[in-house]
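Need a sequence for this fold. Nothing fancy.
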C-alpha cells in the first residue's frame, strides 16, 4: 500500500545524492583547473609579518575567513555585473615562520578572484546544465 511512497522517497534520495556528487565533482574540477593555471596565493602572517605562498589546494583547506569588500557594478557587454572588490581578506593558517596558527592576510585576493571566477562559472555552470537536463528527462519519463 505504501510501496509507492517508499519508491518516491528513494528516488528523491537518489536525486539528492546525485546532485551532491555532481557539485563535489565540479568543486574538484574547479580546484584542479585553478592549480593548473599556476595561481599562487600570496599570504602575510599578521602576527610576525612573514610572507609566504600557498597553492589553491592548501588555501581551500582553511575554513575560517574574514574579509572586507565593496561591490562594484559595471557594464560588461549588455549586462550589468556586480563584483566584489576585496580590501582585506584573511584566513587562519599555521605560519611557516613563527609556527603558530594565526590570521594570514591574502595579498592578491582580487587577482585570485579574476582567475578563479571564470573557471568556477564554467565548472558549476556545466553541473547546473546537467541537473536541468536530468530534471527534464525525469519529468518526461515520470509524466
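Here you go.
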Amino acid at each position: 500500500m505504501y510501496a509507492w511512497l517508499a519508491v518516491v522517497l528513494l528516488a528523491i534520495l537518489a536525486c539528492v545524492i546525485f546532485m551532491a556528487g555532481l557539485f563535489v565533482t565540479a568543486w574538484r574540477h574547479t580546484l584542479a583547473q585553478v592549480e593548473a593555471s599556476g595561481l599562487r596565493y600570496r599570504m602575510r602572517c599578521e602576527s610576525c609579518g612573514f610572507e609566504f605562498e600557498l597553492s589553491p589546494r592548501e588555501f581551500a583547506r582553511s575554513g575560517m575567513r574574514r574579509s572586507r569588500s565593496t561591490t562594484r557594478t559595471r557594464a560588461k557587454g549588455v549586462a550589468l555585473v556586480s563584483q566584489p572588490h576585496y580590501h582585506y581578506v584573511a584566513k587562519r593558517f599555521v605560519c611557516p615562520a613563527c609556527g603558530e596558527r594565526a590570521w594570514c592576510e591574502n595579498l592578491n585576493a582580487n587577482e585570485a578572484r579574476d582567475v578563479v571566477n571564470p573557471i568556477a562559472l564554467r565548472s558549476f555552470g556545466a553541473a547546473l546544465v546537467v541537473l536541468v537536463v536530468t530534471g527534464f528527462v525525469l519529468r518526461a519519463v515520470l509524466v
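For context: The longest helix spans residues 3-36.
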